Task: inverse folding
């Protein structure tokens, strides 16, 4: 799928970086690993030089753990430290521990501030300070300012390199400035217009700038309607803003509306991806920060917690079964069929909950439509409850040759599917209301509801119907 | 969070468009609905004019269904048809049915080609043709070409408006061209360099162009290393490419490497969001295209299918219980405890499955690490199996005052958690291998495994232990 760089094409025709599935090719990794093993710096550099920082990051992940730091050592200035923003957190932390501080400082000097902050923020205070002290004063101050903003805020996400001009400049003057100035950001899409107090007045995209009459003043050309984010705003809100207005970048301002940085879409894409990941994992009972590179013990411990909570709810459901021990003994068919009622309710409730949690996450579900959606889910539960009640009833009647048992399971199924629908929507809504993350905790409550209601309704109705009390 | 446009600030100070939670404010929607009701075109226009297309889309979604088409009619040219790309599919289709074809054609004329294709592609062939025939020939041809590419391909996602120059032009010449030409794309980030056969040679971002010496030729300035996509490539692959290399845009080429369009990051963000949504929904047993605006019947029907499959597996699990009817009758404690073994195994397996499905989706899991991850998951299952086996065994022993029953559930729990771990990883891997979507179908198989293994191991071991056979 990918074209290699020209450099790659000429230097290493034989070794394709990625295989057809887009994974880093085994042959390539082996070749690099061998060269690292042999300490052949020139070979290593030739192999790695042609590749993009993201590919360098993928290579690091694919290498054996003990070859990673040595690779970076051998690569010297061929290694792009931005590659470290592309690897798993745990691998990055290991690497930063292993690498000499001097190497890290040298590598950090070439980074844009957002990448530098991304790497620094996971280190502990001492390591951070050691690295910061090795950097030139201007960079240090900018990074320190970003790091002072709360975790997961726009201030952490932004880069501080940007182009800002005064409102009285003309388009021509601005273009000449861009043309003549050495010290510009590595890449940028717009020029910001600020007042003498560095307060943001507006911005002009480059495509508009090059199309404008040279004599026009920038404050006449700039758009003032564009969205800005505050440095303390949470990154999820920033992501919402980018999604909603299809932004490519957005200025970041401080509490006095002074321009302090710019957030670009590539960082926001990471946030969106991260968020979606967290939702998927949370719904599956996995911690949001679990990574494929974690150790067995770390994973076992983090999953234990969720399973422990589930075990308690499983015992609660069993206790309900225990209430009906006598009835189960008299009619063992009840013991055989009860799990069907509970499981079908659980699955229906999970469907509703999934829709609710995701709609809450992307803000499609709110006070405005909560009632309507709840009503709709209840009706869906009722309809499917009737359908599955009749179906299960028929099968159970045939199985146990007793239409009474079919009638009982039919009613219980209907009750549990409606209960599941209500639980599936009301529990996430309530959790959101009280400030808990619905993706994380809805599942436990919802299946508790359907297990308890399923067992209780089925066995309760059976007790009455058959006079088993 | 949002600043309103200047226009909005002066025209309608009193009505904020969004409330503090970012939802469209009720007061604003009511004011618009009233003005629509009264047929007051001027009022409607004043209320809506200041807002971005995305806000106009949100307004349409928030309005009662019967007011939507009338709003668009009253707005006339104040309505930005791009707003239709921001609303739910079902609402868009309804609206396009209701609106006079002439209105739709007029609205489509102002759209970038990617937005136009997005709106057109869901219509049936007749409607598509009717609209296409009303458009100017050049637009019609471009749209038709996009529509001829397969659904969900890069060709559908791209916009055909772009700037391309020959390789022998200089930077100065190119800038002068941009300055003097009227008919440029609404917004663009780069200039493409093409040969006389319109084959892509390279591209230059605007920030690089304005910084370059005016006399330099573009083929000396252009970067050739950037990634391109083929028009027939699937949008998910396009999204992977953008994510991997932090792209803002990418050229689209046809089979002859001719430049046919450009995909921009805003469209890719939608794809990423959509994909994540599909994974979340699929794991929760909900169809990927279910939307909050769907009708009760549509939803009930689409969810029925998944629940039906689950019902079959629930009956299979119950049949396993049925095999042990005699044992259940002799020891009712077994009937009470069996669901705990099954449920705990199901939850542990779901954890593993969630990690596996997501890692497959974002291509972190592949042939290279499948074995290692499987081994790791098995060990996690073993560790947690031992932990929960002992815990459950202790509680069960106390509950039923019989350490034998504790011993039996302890072993069964261990067996089922290891089985769950293996099922949770091997089932998604196998489904991926045979070309099925692991997110959609893993759940059913996985819970079948843990229900069957859970019931069978617990009751089988109990039969042997207590000599109940």
Result:
């Amino acid at each position: 799928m990918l074209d290699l760089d020209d450099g790659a094409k000429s230097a290493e025709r034989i070794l394709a970086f990625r295989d057809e599935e887009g994974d880093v090719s085994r042959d390539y990794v082996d070749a690099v690993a061998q060269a690292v093993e042999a300490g052949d710096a020139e070979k290593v550099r030739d192999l790695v030089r042609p590749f993009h920082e993201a590919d360098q990051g993928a290579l690091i992940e694919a290498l054996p753990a003990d070859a990673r730091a040595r690779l970076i050592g051998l690569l010297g200035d061929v290694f792009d430290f931005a590659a470290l923003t592309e690897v798993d957190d745990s691998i990055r932390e290991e690497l930063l521990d292993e690498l000499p501080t001097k190497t890290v400082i040298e590598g950090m000097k070439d980074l844009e501030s957002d990448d530098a902050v991304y790497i620094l923020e996971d280190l502990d205070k001492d390591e951070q300070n050691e690295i910061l002290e090795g950097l030139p004063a201007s960079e240090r101050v900018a990074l320190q300012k970003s790091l002072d903003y709360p975790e997961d805020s726009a201030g952490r996400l932004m880069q501080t390199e940007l182009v800002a001009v005064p409102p009285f400049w003309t388009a021509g003057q601005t273009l000449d400035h861009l043309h003549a100035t050495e010290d510009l950001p590595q890449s940028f899409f717009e020029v910001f217009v600020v007042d003498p107090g560095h307060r943001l007045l507006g911005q002009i995209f480059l495509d508009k700038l090059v199309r404008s009459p040279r004599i026009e003043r920038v404050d006449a050309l700039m758009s003032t309607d564009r969205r800005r984010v505050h440095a303390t705003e949470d990154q999820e809100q920033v992501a919402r803003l980018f999604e909603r207005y299809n932004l490519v970048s957005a200025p970041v301002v401080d509490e006095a509306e002074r321009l302090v940085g710019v957030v670009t879409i590539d960082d926001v894409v990471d946030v969106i991806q991260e968020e979606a990941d967290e939702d998927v994992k949370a719904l599956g009972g996995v911690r949001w920060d679990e990574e494929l590179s974690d150790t067995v013990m770390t994973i076992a411990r983090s999953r234990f917690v969720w399973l422990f909570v589930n075990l308690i709810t499983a015992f609660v459901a069993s206790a309900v079964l225990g209430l009906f021990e006598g009835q189960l003994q008299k009619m063992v068919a009840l013991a055989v069929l009860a799990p069907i009622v509970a499981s079908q309710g659980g699955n229906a409730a999970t469907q509703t909950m999934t829709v609710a949690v995701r709609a809450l996450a992307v803000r499609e579900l709110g006070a405005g439509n909560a009632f309507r959606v709840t009503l709709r889910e209840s009706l869906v539960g009722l309809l499917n409850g009737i359908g599955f009640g009749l179906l299960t009833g028929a099968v159970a009647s045939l199985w146990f040759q007793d239409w009474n048992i079919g009638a009982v399971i039919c009613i219980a199924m209907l009750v549990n599917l409606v209960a599941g629908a209500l639980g599936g929507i009301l529990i996430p809504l309530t959790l959101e209301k009280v400030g808990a993350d619905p993706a994380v905790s809805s599942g436990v409550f919802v299946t508790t509801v359907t297990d308890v209601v399923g067992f209780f309704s089925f066995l309760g109705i059976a007790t009455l119907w058959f006079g088993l009390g």
